[in-house]
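sanity check this record:

:::
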Amino acid sequence: MYMLINCSGCRTPLQLPPGAPSIRCAICQAVTNIGDPRHAPPPPAGPPAPPTPYSHAPPGPPPNPHGRKKAVIVGISYKYSRHELKGCINDAKCMKHLLTNKFRFPESSILMLTEEETDPYRLPTKHNMRMALFWLVQGCQPGDSLVFHYSGHGSRQRNYNGDEVDGYDETLCPLDFETQGMIVDDEINASIVRPLPHGVKLHCIIDACHSGTVLDLPFLCRMNRSGQYVWEDHRPRSGVWKGSNGGEAISFSGCDDDQTSADTSALSKITSTGAMTFCFIQAIERGHGATYGSILAAMRTAIRDAGSSTGPDLGGGMVTSLLTMLITGGSGGGVGGLRQEPQLTAIEPFDVYAKPFSL
């Protein structure tokens, strides 16, 4: 029988094997010693410290009076495999730069999972991704702003329980998906959407193939080329609840469920990036970040224009200069006319041109 204890560093629940005197946390690596409760010191006075993914991180700025900001950023290149992608780690670095510089996320509250991490617990394996998603929503309170960004392979598999409109589950592919399996949209929804309490805001930016409804959110915003839109009801016929516990969840994804996402140098002209991640950041940096509708329309226009005779006007903003710092070779040549349409999904419909966007 396993005993459940909280990590002494980040408070993540850990399963302690019978008789073990201590356990190391896979998220923050803190070692929690199990002592005789009769000799335990009295609990400290005052509220507990907020969880942090880094037990060794220097103290950050004081907590935001409007709530904490936390993010999980995953970029997977599948290096040295037949599935290799060129731009995903660049995507992760660009997203971290955007969150820390534009939206004032403390660096200590961003958990990065990429193959460049030297810490084995920060590699984007299936187990580490699951633990990171658990950490993201753990202990969240009204006013908190949470972000999950993923850049890597996505896929789909047949659904047999009747809770998918198209008959397929959408999936994310961890670094070790060939041996450990994929992470299915049902699990992602149960992990980071359903627990959200009232007053907590979750944004997901998913740059992967077949990612339109990878969070299994109940409503999808179907927008045409002129910017007109309708909300499609994707609630399961089975009646299974895919919403939250009162919190807000909104997702931008790279393409529709039956489309693939590009890993390309057609947009930055400098190095490979995920087309969706690049256009999301560019939309915000170039003044289109006022509402969800303005971001989605700008992203779709940029991707549609990629590889055209004129090509997208990239300017000289933060994204392009940041990508210059991240040059790692590129994928060699652009791709004309990227065939993907970024999607917006949410727990409930709203006016996309009236609702202000903020992280």
